[in-house]
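Q: How would the structure tokens look for this protein?
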Amino acid sequence: MKSVKRVRLLLLAYISFSILVLCINGVIFAQAKQQNQTTPVVDLSLPQPEQQTQQPTGGEMTLFSLLVAGGPVMIPLALSSIIGTALIIDMLVFKLRQKNFFDSELVKQVNNLVLQKQYDKAIEICKSAPQVIFKAFLAGIEKRDYRKTDIESIVGEVLDRAIGNLMQQNTYINAVAVIAPMLGLLGTVTGMINAFNVIAFQAGLGKPELLAKGVSEALVTTATGLVIAIPVMSFYFFIRGKIRNIATQLSVLATDFIDNLCYSKREES
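A: Here is the predicted structure in token form.
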């Protein structure tokens, strides 16, 4: 239960961190936009035209408008964020729970039954238990007449397959962390292309507001890609460490089981 609560706190921290950084980026972008809107210098020696009421330029830029400013590249970035979050939740909340791999009490029961040479009862427990370690135990008991090295290979193959599946899913998380900044870089390139097109074909140098869309697209997509990649990459390494820890625990349990199985065979002979 404590590990589940810890995982939930980490997930909340990840989501909160992402939203916080996006909001900070929005405030920074809005402040930069307001600073660029400088008032013109007025020469009092010249006749002044009638003052026109300045229209409000709007309040601070919202998170939604910030995302819109990023352009079309924000769509795959949003999808990558959703996919990465879903994979992380699936791994931490569901896949990496201890009860999916072993039950300490059942492991003791199986080892005791093996030492007592009650293989049929041990097989029944292994078949009824859903954890990965008992599938390995079952394979070892069924091949108990083999040499120890062969039993180790059979048991290890079952465990390696389970750990390999976890590692494979974790590589998908790593892929999201790698692809997100690349998408942000793509948005930077397309944004700068749009900005230079404005300069070349629409006389953008005389109208800075026409350049704002391209420049904002270039900056927002880069920031968004990094905001997605940094926490996802952090969770990738965290999950990889948990998988290695689980693999070590399973290896220790498997080694003890094989030793007990071989010992019972020697006693039987």
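Confidence is low (pLDDT under 50) at residues 38-42, 51-58.

The helical segments are 2-36, 63-69, 74-95, 104-115, 119-128, 132-142, 148-201, 208-268.

Upvote if useful.
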